[in-house]
């Protein structure tokens, strides 16, 4: 197939590698000419340009821009496409995107690969990024079955684990396991650097090891992405943050009261629950 990728960052570039390896002809569009040249040189795409005209002949187009650019980019893109072209996105928020694009383009299928790294840009792209990772599709009742089937086939070919859900369900779920952790992890780092004693702060930085690395990783990620998570999934994220705050207050109270038995019970409960989220 001729497959277009609009946005040649980590996700778009990684998609390009895998799709090309399966024999698809991959067309890439980026805002920067230098990114286009790098993507071709690295072998992520067959052709690349800053002009959306390159995607005119594409049968499927993946929108891999930052969340805030997805809708305006699609509004421009559809002027260049055949009505039969299937359009899908990779945004980490689904409800506002699906609500905005579905009336504009019949063959649109909302999507979100739960894959990535702390790095960004075409240089961070890698092969097999999606293998064994969740990939969510959020079609509506009116979405043509042909469009869904085409995107589903591509997703399965990436080696990803496919899930279907409603856009609103998706946004509530990712607020817990993706967006909330970014805010919590960022707050952890902010709390640590608020240490008043420079020698203690330096010692903490020297002693930080795997535990801190694991809990702070997503808080050290792309700030633009974090802001967009909060902006476009505001209500669900606020609900998750408020429930997290109540749990944190409970821990504070247990420690203040020296209620070690209740604290141990809470830690035992979370120890039992974690494998349900992470194998």
Plain-language structure description:
The structure is a single chain. With 279 residues, the chain is of the alpha/beta class. It is 51% helix and 12% strand. The chain contains eleven helices and nine strands. The strands form two sheets. It has a six-stranded parallel beta sheet, sandwiched between helices. Strand 1, helix 1 (10-21) and strand 2 form a beta-alpha-beta unit. Helix 6 (167-192) crosses helix 10. The longest helix has 26 residues, at 167-192. The model has no long low-confidence stretch (mean pLDDT 95).
Pairing-aware structural class of the strands and helices? alpha/beta
Topology order in helix (H) and strand (E) letters: EHEHEEHEHEEEHEHHHHHH
The rough form would be described as: globular
Spatial ordering of strands, largest sheet:
3-2-1-4-5-6
Our measurement of the CA-to-CA distance between the termini, rounded to an integer number of angstroms, reads 35 Å
Strand content: 5-15%
Rg over alpha carbons: 21 Å
The counted number of beta strands is: 9
Q: How many helices?
A: 11
Mean pLDDT: 95
* Unreliable segments of 5+ consecutive residues: none
Describe the sheet with the most strands: 6 strands, parallel
Specify the helix fraction band: 40-55%
Quick structural overview:
Helices cover 51% and strands 12% of the residues. The protein is α/β, with parallel strands linked by helices and 279 residues long.
